[in-house]
Amino acid sequence: QVQLVESGGGLVQAGGSLRLSCAASGRTGSNYAMGWFRQAPGKEREFVAAIDRSGGSIYYEPSVKGRFTISRDNAKNTAYLQMNNLKPEDTAVYYCNGEPGISFWDIFSADFASWGQGTQVTVSS
Asked: Positive or negative, the Cα torsion across 37, 65, 110, 34?
């Protein structure tokens, strides 16, 4: 079983940047696609970005495309989300996830068995 630990969140002013990390331990995540998701207060969790096993295929939710960059370092079993030009509407708890058997093409709507604690991102106006 894989444990995923998100970090890197914080409080930032609008227009600022943060880099989130997702460290995988246990049965590591280098063999399957990874995704970032977020949940704002009072809203459902939503998809943000996905990256396939090799990093060759990437997909973004339209509202973050051009501002966020997803990447991964399989040697470190870590995925990243670089967030630039942050907006107050980006305020949310950010989660990463991925499971064997869930492909890159299915990750944005996948029903994951469990979620980590996430990392809080707060963008002030």
From this structure: negative
Contact 36, 7 (CB under 8 A): no
Phi and psi dihedrals of 58, rounded to 5? Answer: -140, 145
Between strands 10-13 and 119-124, the pairing is parallel
pLDDT tens sequence across 98-115 = 988 889 999 999 999 899
CB atoms within 10 A of CB 20: 25
Residues 83, 46: Cα–Cα separation, whole Å = 16
Question: Can you give the three-state secondary structure of 34-97, one letter per residue?
Answer: EEEEEECCCCCCEEEEEECCCCCCEEECCCCECCEEEEEEHHHCEEEEEECCCCHHHCEEEEEE
pLDDT per position as a tens digit, 71-102: 999 999 999 999 999 999 999 999 999 988 88
- CB neighbour class for 41 (10 Å; exposed up to 12, middle 13-18, buried from 19): exposed
